[in-house]
Specification:
The protein has about 325 residues and is α/β, with parallel strands linked by helices. The protein contains eleven helices and eight strands. Helix 5 (about 140-155) links the parallel strand 3 and strand 4. The chain starts with 9 loop residues before the first strand and ends in a 6-residue tail after the last helix. Mean pLDDT is about 95; it is low at about 1-5.
Length: about 325
């Protein structure tokens, strides 16, 4: 008869998109080459896309990206990596009673998912729960993590037992954590005057319309999160609009675009605009630079008076509680 697994035989791997090692042009080029070579991210024939990537993206775009990274880089390193490491550390404490190991990994860049999985196996952990850090499922995010996981397993002669979390767009703990973060910001900076026309904008990362046409459920899951958060905050769709940011190509992407909406709201007389990004579990380039700097400037330059970027959940107590609960549910049956 097989002996039962001990409480310490499971590992949890939190996987986010990735980041350059440093805000320099060579490092950004290495990162973008890996990221933008993934067919899940850019679904174009390699014979067409590779020359564009090498001759255009990795020169002009990479130069601009390195400057953007430099504008938000922390003393401890990349914002995304710093927040992910802090989140993993917080979850180790929150899950200390389970004995599970909690590690952070990146889909592109370092620490690489394959290396983290190898390290867990070397520590004798033969059960692994992989948590792609995207509350809303998308082909270009969650699916790429599962692709990488499958590739890692295909190279192994001794496979661990593996589970993975698909998404959690309506999870009550997640909704409550977001509401707590927003309400904390309002307690510190004053609540918007919604009766006077102030807005809370919910901005999600966009994806190409072609992916949605092919069956990607991402916009539906974004809408589900938005509806639940509006209900929790007792706000209407007019008071709390939903947009999509970070368009990368010339092909049609999900709309309305955050940058366009920000300018339109300011031009229409909205005095204060608060912006929160429900799809980003931790702060990164897209929230700190794109929202905190670029969209702020856009709103103020079009006549807006006050722009408030609500921080991501990061390692806040509410986020730790929500993720710990989610992880415990997915570990059911693995722990004594």
């Amino acid at each position: 008869m097989l002996e039962p697994h001990s409480a310490g035989s499971a590992g949890v791997v939190l996987v986010n998109l990735g980041t350059p090692d440093e805000p320099t042009l060579p490092a950004v080029r290495r990162y973008l080459r890996e990221f933008l070579s993934d067919r899940r991210v850019v679904d174009l024939p390699p014979l067409w896309w590779k020359p564009i990537l090498e001759l255009h993206i990795l020169h002009g775009h990479a130069r601009r990206s390195s400057a953007k990274y430099a504008s938000v880089w922390y003393d401890r390193g990349s914002p995304l990596l710093v927040h992910m490491m802090d989140l993993a550390e917080g979850l180790r404490t929150a899950l200390a009673d389970t004995g599970v190991a909690v590690e952070a990994a990146m889909r592109y860049g370092r620490p690489a998912l394959g290396q983290v999985l190898d390290d867990l196996r070397q520590r004798g952990l033969d059960r692994v729960l992989v948590v792609p850090m995207y509350p809303q499922f998308a082909t270009s995010t969650t699916a790429t993590v599962i692709d990488a996981l499958s590739q890692c397993l295909a190279r192994s002669q001794n496979l661990p037992e593996v589970r993975w979390v698909r998404s959690w767009p309506r999870d009550p703990g997640y909704i409550e954590a977001m509401a707590a973060r927003i309400e904390q910001t309002w307690s510190e900076q004053g609540r918007p005057d919604f009766a006077a026309g102030d807005k809370l904008l919910l901005s999600y990362h966009g994806i190409p319309v072609s992916m949605v046409a092919a069956g990607d459920p991402y916009p539906e899951e974004c809408e589900a999160t938005t509806a639940a958060l509006r209900q929790r905050l007792d706000l209407t769709a007019e008071q709390c609009p939903m947009t999509f940011q970070s368009k990368f190509s010339h092909s049609p992407w999900l709309t309305p675009a955050t940058i366009d909406t920000v300018a339109e709201l300011a031009g229409a007389g909205v005095r204060r605009l608060d912006v929160f990004c429900p799809g980003f579990t931790v702060d990164c380039l897209e929230t700190l630079e794109e929202i905190g700097l670029l969209n702020r400037e856009e709103f103020l330059s079009h006549g807006g008076q006050t722009f408030v970027r609500v921080p991501c959940l990061n390692d806040s107590p509410a986020q730790l509680t929500a993720l710990a609960g989610l992880i415990r549910r997915h570990l059911a049956g693995w722990l004594d």
